[in-house]
Design brief:
Layout lengths: L15 E2 L21 H9 L10 E7 L5 E6 L11 E5 H7 L12 H10 L1
Parallel strand pairs: 1-4
Antiparallel strand pairs: 2-3, 3-4
């Protein structure tokens, strides 16, 4: 679950979401320097309702920009009449700041972590 209704993401125009290091993000083009996301910043944006749980996202893969920075490829449930035919790209900074919950199929959990969980039950 995450917040993709921000003015800094547009699945119809750019098709990607980033958290620019500065607050001026109009006419973003190319690679932008992104803000370092801390737990305090995450909590602050959640507490003041700047991050809301407004959309489910299905992460289907990883991509990289021109500088090798990771982007999560998300299938957008709002249809294919958007940029990238219904997919959007979320930077790691965007994902870290604007994602509220992650659900993972148990087959995707590494065995080492499953053993830790089982030992605590």
């Amino acid at each position: 679950d995450g917040d993709v209704s921000e003015p800094i993401i547009s699945s119809t125009k750019t098709g990607y979401g980033v958290i620019p290091d500065n607050t001026i993000f109009q006419n973003m083009e190319g690679v932008v320097k992104e803000k370092h996301i801390t737990q305090e910043l995450r909590q602050n944006t959640f507490d003041n309702f700047m991050t809301t749980d407004d959309h489910l996202m299905h992460i289907i893969g990883l991509a990289h920009d021109q500088n090798g920075e990771k982007f999560y490829i998300c299938k957008n449930s709002s249809g294919t009449n958007r940029k990238f035919e219904g997919y959007m790209y979320l930077s790691r900074s965007y994902f870290r700041l604007k994602t509220i919950a992650v659900m993972l199929n148990k087959n995707g959990v590494p065995e080492k972590i499953i053993k830790k969980i089982d030992s605590k039950l």
